[in-house]
Write a structure and sequence with these properties.
single chain, mainly alpha, Four Helix Bundle (Hemerythrin (Met), subunit A), globular
């Protein structure tokens, strides 16, 4: 019987543990994700210290890191389930919690409990959006053309568009009385768009192949965009936010057209 149930001796484990070395190409994307998380946490600190501009810039930096980590992982072939889960947790804090705190401190606190409920709904919508994204990426039946679209506004875009009232405040625009109620309605609209089934452009496959004649003009465009972002940061963010919102119905129509084309191709192979 002693052979069937040997005594447990922690210092004499007959099965030595072996930990395989983790490739550096897997670690680099996760480090970029952690930098995004740190930027989101720093935005909360700046918001509490009354530094609205620094808080908004920290969210912008977090969004840049978030856009880089996935592309770096695919480039280095370092994608992993661990990295995907870490990315979701970092996104929830940087784009679900931090923007909500900024919006409440700078505007929605005038509505007291209504303002707090608004930011709770915004954060909850961000969490639900991220959870749905994690489920959908594991769907093997998803057509290839649907990878060009998100279902609902993604969490980073929801944060950057939801902060539009803060951009206007940073630009020094005079807001009329009762603007907090309009801001709350706008934030609830963004929260609804995040959990909705409305398709939006993803841009993941955009630029994977660039025609040769467009290489030099693309360099000029990128330099111009970076210069505008650095020089006229919040003016640029306001304009891009409005353009993004205007592109939502265009993306919706394009998605429906491709869906009908895919359905007809399936019916008539």
């Amino acid at each position: 019987m002693t052979d069937l149930f040997p005594p447990f001796e922690p210092d004499k484990d007959p099965r030595p543990r072996r930990f395989n070395a983790v490739p550096l190409r897997v670690l680099i994307p996760n480090l970029v994700t952690l930098l995004s998380l740190c930027a989101g946490l720093t935005a909360i600190r700046f918001a509490y210290e009354g530094q609205l501009r620094s808080a908004l810039l920290a969210i912008l930096v977090a969004a840049i890191f978030d856009g880089l980590d996935g592309r770096i992982a695919r480039l280095l072939k370092g994608t992993s389930r661990f990295g995907a889960e870490l990315d979701s947790l970092a996104d929830f804090l940087s784009f679900g919690v931090s923007p909500a705190i900024i919006l409440y401190i700078y505007g929605l606190n005038e509505l007291n409990s209504i303002g707090w409920i608004t930011v709770i709904l915004f954060s909850s919508a961000s969490a639900l959006r991220l959870a749905r994204f994690n489920v959908m990426i594991d769907d093997p039946a998803r057509p290839e053309w649907q990878k060009n679209f998100f279902i609902g506004i993604p969490a980073p875009a929801g944060a950057l568009t939801g902060l539009l009232p803060a951009y206007l405040l940073e630009l020094g625009l005079t807001v009329p009385p009762g603007f907090a109620a309009v801001e709350a309605a706008y934030i609830l609209f963004i929260a609804f768009m995040m959990v909705s089934r409305i398709p939006t452009y993803a841009g993941k496959t955009f630029g994977s192949r660039v025609p040769r004649e467009w290489v030099l003009p693309l360099f000029v465009i990128v330099i111009a965009v970076v210069a505008l972002l650095v020089t006229y940061t919040f003016q640029f963010l306001v304009v891009t936010t409005l353009i993004y919102l205007l592109l939502i119905p265009i993306g919706f129509r394009r998605y429906r057209a491709l869906e009908r084309l895919h359905r007809n191709a399936g019916a008539h192979p």
